[in-house]
Fold each of these.
Amino acid sequence: MTSLYAKELEVAQLAVQRAARLTKRVFHEKAKGTVSKDDKSPVTIGDFGAQALIIAALQHHFPADEIVAEEEAAQLRTDAPLREQIWDLVSTTQLDDVAAEGFLGGRIPGADAMLDLIDRGNSPGGARGRIWAIDPIDGTKGFLRGGQYAVCLALMVDGDVKVGVLGCPNLPVDDAAPLTADIGANQTDEGRGVLFSAVVGQGATSRPLGTGALAEGKKISMKPITEMSSATFCESVESGHSNQSDSAQIAQKLNITNPSVRMDSQAKYGSIARGAGDIYLRLPTSKTYQEKIWDHAAGDLIVREAGGQVTDTTGSRLDFSRGRTLAANKGVVAAPAAVHGQVLKVVQEVLGL
Ligand SMILES: Nc1ncnc2c1ncn2[C@@H]1O[C@H](COP(=O)(O)O)[C@@H](OP(=O)(O)O)[C@H]1O
Ligand SMILES: [Mg+2]
Ligand SMILES: [Mg+2]
Ligand SMILES: [Mg+2]
């Protein structure tokens, strides 16, 4: 008997692997083609290209599904040189396993089709039906500085995350490797690249992020915390994304002395899910910011399937049914299930909740 969501999982893993291959090409071969979005955050040709390749695979297998993706093609429709740069990348990035590439549906017919695929990610989201969430490059700032980033894909059904996949090209392959923030300017790709996956009720796995067919996966689980004082926090590099002074106070109250490890992207969720770190805190820096569903959907499931609990700072589960944002939530507290309550209590004391 094939397990539930087996096909969705395979498509998602291979699509993420192919998109990650594109992002690595951008990092190594190309000027990154960075442009500023309306909110002043960066987006690169890698973000657009990876989104196009992922949506092409989803469109091939699940044409009726809705898609909520971070990027849109508007700017590319008026900027021909930028569009051509992206098309050049997209049209020449394949998996190097012929069967796997064929399974994803092969090439996109042309640059216009590519733009339309990118814009297929414009679903408003919501509580009904099958909706994919895509963050083609999460941690674009990390990507640009040679740090951590993640290619993120999740399937939600009626507002619940059922399948989650994270491709983390710059994390060590070895699940037992010590937690590192940046990979450093002169390090190579040797020994790096992990693909994390989870299906609801089926546990979480990691495998080397490859360039063709999928490698063998192995089960991952969070590390049990026996002494809170020896736990390690993961948090954003960007102080504008998570309040680092609040997290320092929380660490102090929990008698944690290890410095928190700062890394960009959902690599934080993957890292705690495999026991390389222990606790991921994302503490609001503003009253109005709403977290985006594509920044959390895959990581939320991977951590919960690895034995973790994920809530916001009020203790509610992340609610992916509200549209493109987590409109009902504030911040994120992710920790091994056994200690989540203890961590949340201190988070709430420090935040005055
Ligand atoms: N003020 C803010 N508060 C929280 N998250 C923010 C933010 N502004 C941007 N972000 C999100 O933070 C993500 C990166 O998270 P992290 O800090 O964990 O690396 C960004 O994803 P992208 O890089 O995909 O745009 C972006 O969506
Ligand atoms: Mg972005
Ligand atoms: Mg993101
Ligand atoms: Mg992004």
Amino acid sequence: MAGSPGLKPLVAVCQVTSTPDKELNFTACAGLVREAAQRGACLVFLPEGFDYIGSDTVETLGLAESLDGDLLGRYAGLARDCGVWLSLGGFHERGRDWPTTQRIYNCHVLLDPTGCRVAAYRKTHLCDVELEGRVSMKESSFTNPGPEIVPPVSTPAGKLGLSICYDLRFPEISLALRRAGAEILTYPSAFTVTTGSAHWEVLLRARAIESQCYVVAAAQTGKNHERRTSYGHSLVVDPWGSVVAQCREGPGLCYAEIDLDYLHRVRREIPVHSHRRPDLYGTVAAGPAP
Ligand SMILES: O=C(O)CNC(=O)[C@H](CS)NC(=O)CCC(=O)C(=O)O
């Protein structure tokens, strides 16, 4: 574990098939977290929608809780029992504005091993995507966009930068987190099969290579309900861009050691972050292109 000489921190990535049944989902997630803790992981990652995947908007909104609700209380107990950090990537959160907006936040919560909530990042890029006849998502119809990027958090595995799923398509947020000190970027996800098979791994590897961070991506897999199937392929990429861990099909775990000496070597050898030309990119992130 961190601090013990010679031993690198181990992280665990959980892959699950969430359904609309919160109780079943908690049982499945808790089983994986306990297994990961027994194997010596210090930080365990759960995907977007670890709490549930609703079968329609009404159900999704109806099942949502606040950050102080029962479900996150149980996860805090789990973190304490197991003595692990928990990245809960994509909790359906009823925020304080619920009574007025009737929309939720897609909230990535980080718990420390005392069960304390040390960060909450609300998804800033919402997935409104329409592939004719194949994929139709309009996350903004039931979700409010988060207002800010959250500074990376120190964990025993390294400084962790929080994003969620569709954020993966925006290199700007990964570079902002990298600049703010991130050593690990994490993208808990529920990708579609269509977009996942084309884009998932290449996007994750690109984010790792350009930011020179570890990238950890816990994913939903398989059939969440009658009308939804998720791509899976949870994985960990190192700062060189190599896939160092990957889940097989179906629910399960994969593990990776985080080697920050290696990360620093990669950053020394190809110092892209001191070669940047911010004088040239002024408006690249500025807004809609023609
Ligand atoms: O709605 C929930 O309950 C949980 N949230 C999601 O599943 C979100 C919003 S619909 N899914 C994605 O962002 C998929 C992105 C994707 O597939 C891509 O970028 O290609």
Amino acid sequence: MAQSTLDSMPGASTGTVVVTEPLNFWGGKRVKPRQEKNAEPVFEPATGRVLCQMVPCGAEEVDEAIQSAYAAYQKWSKMAGMERARVMLEAARIIRERREKIAKLEVINNGKSIIEALVDIDIAWQSIEYYAGLAGTLAGQHIQLPGGAFAYTRREPLGVCVGIGAWNYPFQIASLKSAPALACGNAMVYKPSPMTPVTAVILAEIYKEAGVPDGLFCVVQGGAETGSLLCHHPKVAKVSFTGSVPTGKKVMEMSAKSVKQVTLELGGKSPLIIFKDCELENAVKGALMANFLTQGQVCCNGTRVFVQREIMPQFLEEVVKRTKAIPVGDPLLESTRMGALISKPQLEKVLGFVSQAKKEGARVLCGGDPFVPSDPKLKGGYFMSPCVLDNCRDDMTCVKEEIFGPVMSVLPFDTEEEVIKRANNTTFGLASGVFTRDISRAHRVAENLEAGTCFINNYNISPVEVPFGGYKMSGFGRENGQVTIEYYSQLKTVVVEMGDVESLF
Ligand SMILES: NC(=O)c1ccc[n+]([C@@H]2O[C@H](COP(=O)([O-])OP(=O)(O)OC[C@H]3O[C@@H](n4cnc5c(N)ncnc54)[C@H](O)[C@@H]3O)[C@@H](O)[C@H]2O)c1
Ligand SMILES: C[N+](C)(C)CCCC=O
């Protein structure tokens, strides 16, 4: 079964794939949905054609998946870290071996370019490999106490963790959440976005093939209702959520009812600050990387580009020239650099932001229109031309709200003090960036920006070894890096008396 969806991939082209296999996975196998009458069509963004049906899981199915994960957790958590590592390394190897096929399926479901999807799949296996490396290192402390007594700590798993993902990095988010969870000895029940249901189940099959106990990584399909069943389930110890701020708040509220641990990876409106002493070509390239990956549908994008006034004309000329040259079109072609947005409503929402920006006084320097590729099969796709907005002010909607599309807002500034104040004037705090040749300024700015990440002289690179997560309303907890072990484990203290009990009673 694992191979059936992927087997059609090598020769697959845009507009040809239909996925018919069940998309749920628990108890070690794909599971047919029970309530077919609730099926929702899932669209291929590049064509607007129906790719598959997503049937949301109800309470019984969610419970079955969680019970199956719990049974697997009891076996997996008793294995040595080194044993878990061996299985995880095998899963990473299989992903690496099938990277092209998985990337193709991701493109067909998500609309991003194949060149980006391949990187996403590489980050996925790297994450599993990285946490496999840490699995054997989990250890506690030994603490000496008076009279020969001592204490020690044990790093223990939490139990069944739930992962809830967004649609912009479907396979990668499922991997980034499950890798540290499994390394620590937990099981995971994962719910992908209802818009991108097809690749998480491939990950589940690969874990199974690699040798995890049946049920260790389960996939349940669905939207808000299924997500809420997961957050309320009494056997769930933790919820790791990636998505928007409003949904993140709901997840936190629901999890609070039974005091579940929560990690929230939420949205952003990140500032990218370009000083006049920067290396301009790199700064322009950085601004493009900060705005146009995955059609601009990236949480940590640097969508408020602050440019020091003296270099604004040169910056705009170069950034517009390069933006106009971005090849938009069939995401499965290697030459394409921008594919289709996730859905028609998302495309309309983003175009609406551009119209609103114009009404509020912004000037469109390029793009911002629906784009119809010449290839007839792409006529129904959700494409738009990447957009650069000039004449922006801090009070404009396009500067304040997360657009989640290929729209860069450019703002002038004069001094470092002023720009830091303006950059921090947001409820979000996911990422930030600074371009300058002045090393002291770079670190001073990084220190003063209220964001979970600051990129110096680059943007949107996130190796798996480096922690990633938000400040302020962009969330809390971290993904990637060693620190994430702490978010998927708990510390038990064992206190050992070696003498007699000195009782006060
Ligand atoms: N910080 C990060 O790492 C990161 C990464 C990717 C996306 N995002 C953010 O995600 C957003 C876009 O993704 P989206 O549109 O899928 O977000 P969303 O909040 O609409 O949905 C995210 C997930 O939550 C589920 N969900 C919806 N309502 C729920 C409920 N009541 N209870 C439980 N689950 C529920 C959805 O089905 C989906 O799986 C943007 O704001 C973006 O910035 C953040
Ligand atoms: C890999 N990137 C580009 C840093 C994206 C992280 C996930 C946010 O949407």
